[in-house]
Design brief:
With 444 residues, the protein is mainly alpha-helical. The protein is built from 18 helices and 2 strands. It has a two-stranded antiparallel sheet. α7 packs antiparallel against α8, α7 packs antiparallel against α9 and α16 packs parallel to α17. The chain is globular. It starts with a helix and ends in an 18-residue tail after the last helix.
Length: 444
């Protein structure tokens, strides 16, 4: 039982438990047993923090069913090993070396000595940010829906947003709040904080602490912090401009809104497209240019060590700088005057190749099982499932059972990552004492 197998099987176990609970009569509004495929799809989407749904969460599930969904989202967002470690700490259990290794690998952390402290800081950060989101969203939901229902809606959407899940209790997601400044600020901020990664959040905290104490020495940001923050900022601004221009005259999306509403809606979709599955405009009526831009943002995804999916910002940035190095005739890849190790480059290439293979195979299978569906809608659905985003053009509930099973598998692969799943299936690599001779090869 390797570390990768522990993590992959752990996610499967949580998904199966969630499926059984969501099938129970107490989880449904009508008090009947739910369809196993529907329960499996919802549980997988929640644990993999995707947000794709085949039923309306707010009307199909009772309070207990909604509570199960939000617990699955929280466990999936934290990660199986992080949640397990937290339970062990609460119960006073022994934190063995095997668990330390598993947590280190699942969080992309360096070193084993500070793993327990890292988990504690992650839990504390998660609780603090989500509680802040709850209080901010209560200012919108409580006056509209009453105290009890308003508080529950605020709790559900705050957890769903921070964990980049995209589940909503409203049948139109957040379309009714398309011009609400409060919602268009709070939800994207929760999504950004959840998708930027705990390491960046903690480094920002230490930087602010350093500024407050006015220490004389200079604070040095890590390479990871620089790459993630700059790439995220570029994608947020670039995505807002793209959505504004491509949907500006679309009567089904931005055209009826005022200038401020257009900017807010474009900003909202730019933030959500990379990680979470909320929407404030009708995705099914977006232009093909906007759908293509959304797929690109979904594939890039969030950052390592976060609650989001996708290839990750650092992976795309490393490959982009590889291209720059080739064009400039350099033998090494540089990022902010730092050389990127060959192992990191190989991992990035492997991640992209495995991801594209998964997307191509899943798209082919769904086009075979459901040939009547529009091709761009199928591709969009697969991209959304693999990147654990949750945006949809509206075909999720219409696809066949076989297509739903394919989407379930894609969501799972996207959450645990292709490389970790392959490592779990193949096993740990065996060291080799053989070095083979080099030979040149024509590429490009």
């Amino acid at each position: 039982m390797t570390v990768s197998r522990t993590i992959c099987l752990g996610f499967l176990g949580v998904i199966l438990v969630g499926t059984l609970l969501l099938m129970m009569p107490f989880s449904l509004v009508d008090g009947t047993w739910d369809n196993p495929v529907t329960a499996l799809f919802t549980s997988t989407s929640a644990v993999c923090v995707t947000g794709l749904v085949v039923v309306d969460t707010g009307t199909h599930y009772s309070f207990w069913g909604q509570l199960i969904v939000v617990v699955l989202i929280q466990v999936g967002g934290l990660g199986y090993m992080t949640a397990t470690t937290f339970l062990l700490l609460l119960l006073g259990g022994r934190f063995k070396l095997r668990y330390r290794l598993a947590v280190q690998q699942s969080l992309d952390a360096t070193g084993l000595s500070n793993v327990v402290q890292l988990v504690r800081s992650i839990i504390a950060t998660t609780v603090l940010i989500q509680l802040t989101g709850v209080f901010l969203l209560m200012l919108v939901f409580v006056p509209e829906r009453g105290f009890q229902l308003g508080v529950w809606n605020a709790v559900f959407h705050s957890i769903s947003a921070f964990n980049n899940a995209g589940f909503s209790l409203f049948s139109d997601s957040l379309v009714q709040y398309v011009d609400s400044p409060f919602v268009n600020f709070t939800i994207p901020m929760l999504v950004i904080l959840g998708g930027i990664g705990y390491q960046v959040i903690m480094e920002t905290y230490y930087w602010l602490k350093h500024l407050l104490f006015q220490r004389s020495e200079r604070f040095c940001f890590s390479l990871h912090f620089k790459v993630v923050t700059n790439t995220t900022l570029f994608l947020l601004i670039g995505g807002t401009i793209i959505f504004f221009l491509t949907e500006l005259h679309n009567p089904e999306t931005l055209a009826p809104l005022g200038f401020g509403g257009k900017v807010m809606a474009a900003w909202f979709q730019s933030t959500i497209a990379r990680t979470a599955g909320f929407n404030s405009i009708d995705i099914g009526h977006m232009t093909n240019a906007a759908l293509f831009a959304t797929m690109a943002l979904m594939l890039i995804g969030a950052s390592p060590g976060s609650t989001g999916g996708g290839l990750k910002t650092t992976t795309v940035r490393v490959l982009a700088n590889c291209t720059t190095a080739v064009l400039r005739g350099r033998d090494e890849v540089l990022l902010y005057q730092r050389q990127v190790p060959t192992e990191t480059i190989l991992k990035a290439v492997g991640c992209v190749m495995g991801s594209m293979a998964t997307i191509v195979i899943a798209t082919m299978l769904i086009t075979i099982t459901d040939p009547k569906l529009d091709f761009i809608q199928v591709v969009f659905e697969v991209f959304s499932a693999f990147a654990t985003v949750g945006l949809s053009t509206g075909i999720t509930a219409q696809v066949s059972v076989w297509a739903k099973l394919v989407i379930i598998a894609v969501m799972y692969v996207g959450r645990v990552s292709v490389l970790m799943l392959m490592s779990a299936l193949i096993g740990d690599p065996k060291p080799s004492a053989v070095d083979y001779p080099q030979e040149d090869l024509l590429v490009g």
